[in-house]
Amino acid sequence: MPPPPPPRGGGGGGGGCFYSPRGGGPPPAARWGPGAGRGGPNGRGGAPLRGARAALFTGAGRVFVAAIEPAGAVDFVQPEIMMRDAQDFDGGDATLVIGPGMGDSVSAMRVLFKALEGKAALVIDADALNLIADSPDLQGRLAQREATAIVTPHPLEAARLLGVTSAVVQGDRLAAARELASRLNAVVVLKGSGTVIANAGGAVVINPTGNAGLATAGSGDVLAGMCGSLLAQGWQAWEAAIGAVWVHGAAAERLVAQGSGPIGLTAGELPVAARAVLNALAR
Ligand SMILES: NC(=O)C1=CN([C@@H]2O[C@H](COP(=O)(O)OP(=O)(O)OC[C@H]3O[C@@H](n4cnc5c(N)ncnc54)[C@H](OP(=O)(O)O)[C@@H]3O)[C@@H](O)[C@H]2O)[C@@H](O)CC1
Ligand SMILES: Nc1ncnc2c1ncn2[C@@H]1O[C@H](COP(=O)(O)OP(=O)(O)O)[C@@H](O)[C@H]1O
């Protein structure tokens, strides 16, 4: 597999947007009650923030987190990230990363529907994939979109989308990724050791980078953010997916070489390492 192409335009030109159930800080207790959706707001508001930080550190110039529940005013760890409410946020033609920490409330479904109807390039991950797996209508809308989409399932999410078990997916990962890419008309990143990237035309590659340190909560959210970041900087979907997966794995290798893993490697460390990997490639 070739190394990823260098970033175009030196970064800084793109924007990104990450949907979350809330914008940080504990949600009001009332929002945890019945009616909030199958999962409801779920204490996973860190997921979009992690993706948003990954996008910032890999060159996306302006990054928003659009929260499904009322957003916190600021991310104090990364105040460069702009917080918005998803319901009234118009991202224009900004690249959207949708799904991490999003939950499955009615509001989440509405926001996903709007994103699929829109013309923005999409990265679809996590909860958004599960909502799509549950809805033939949303699957059809995704397949019929003209704009770019990268979908980033782990094996269970891929299995749900295909209507099979994760054992079937893992039994032939290349076939599963190809079938999903063809059905959804999207670039598919089937995650796991030896992540498979496939497109609707039947092309398929296996990523060689990464290590067991990546098996840590939230590293998939970081990958989604990096895919969105490269898309926002003008990379085509196929190159963005291959490049982001390669850099994500190389970042983990760099951290392990420096002694920061594999034991105890955290997803939050990946963006800084990914920045170093990308800058080394660009030099
Ligand atoms: N700190 C935060 O804010 C974090 C927020 N996050 C957000 O949480 C949301 C849900 O994420 P999720 O799919 O990981 O759901 P989760 O409830 O863990 O598992 C559900 C089922 O999936 C399975 N499963 C999981 N991974 C698998 C794999 N690679 N291959 C195969 N199976 C796998 C798992 O199986 P098990 O591991 O129990 O065997 C279980 O049965 C999503 O919005 C995400 O962005 C997370 O990123 C974590 C940190
Ligand atoms: N042993 C491994 N070797 C290489 N990459 C791995 C390994 N285990 C997990 N990963 C990577 O870590 C990420 C995990 O993402 P995901 O399953 O979505 O978890 P989470 O929901 O916790 O973020 C994926 O990019 C996956 O390819």
Structure in a nutshell:
With 283 residues, the chain is α/β, with parallel strands linked by helices. It contains ten helices and nine strands.
Features:
single chain; disordered N terminus; 41% helix; binds ligand NPW; 283 residues; UDP-N-acetylmuramoyl-L-alanine:D-glutamate ligase; 9 strands; alpha/beta; binds adenosine-5'-diphosphate
Task: Describe the 3D structure.
With 283 residues, this protein is an alpha/beta fold. It has a domain of 186 residues: Ribokinase (UDP-N-acetylmuramoyl-L-alanine:D-glutamate ligase), CATH 3.40.1190.20. It is 41% helix and 13% strand. It has a nine-stranded mixed beta sheet, with helices on both faces. Strand 4, helix 2 and strand 5 form a beta-alpha-beta unit. Helix 5 packs across helix 7. The longest helix is centred in the C-terminal third of the chain and has 21 residues. The two termini are 21 Å apart. The N terminus is likely disordered. This is ADP-dependent (S)-NAD(P)H-hydrate dehydratase.
Quantity of strands, as a count: 9
Count of DSSP H/I helices: 10
**Beta-strand content estimate:** 5-15%
Examine the coordinates and then state which fold CATH places here, giving the name of the CATH topology of the domain at 97-282: UDP-N-acetylmuramoyl-L-alanine:D-glutamate ligase
Bound heterogens, unique:
ligand NPW, adenosine-5'-diphosphate
Produce the secondary structure layout.
Elements: E1 15-20, H1 46-57, E2 62-67, E3 82-85, E4 95-98, H2 106-117, E5 122-124, H3 126-133, H4 136-144, E6 149-151, H5 155-162, H6 166-171, H7 173-184, E7 187-190, E8 196-198, E9 204-206, H8 219-232, H9 237-257, H10 270-282
Helix pairs in contact: 1-8, 1-10, 3-5, 5-7, 8-9, 9-10
Bound molecules: ligand NPW and adenosine-5'-diphosphate.
Adenosine-5'-diphosphate binds next to helix 8.
Region (Disordered): 1-47
Protein name: ADP-dependent (S)-NAD(P)H-hydrate dehydratase
EC number: 4.2.1.136
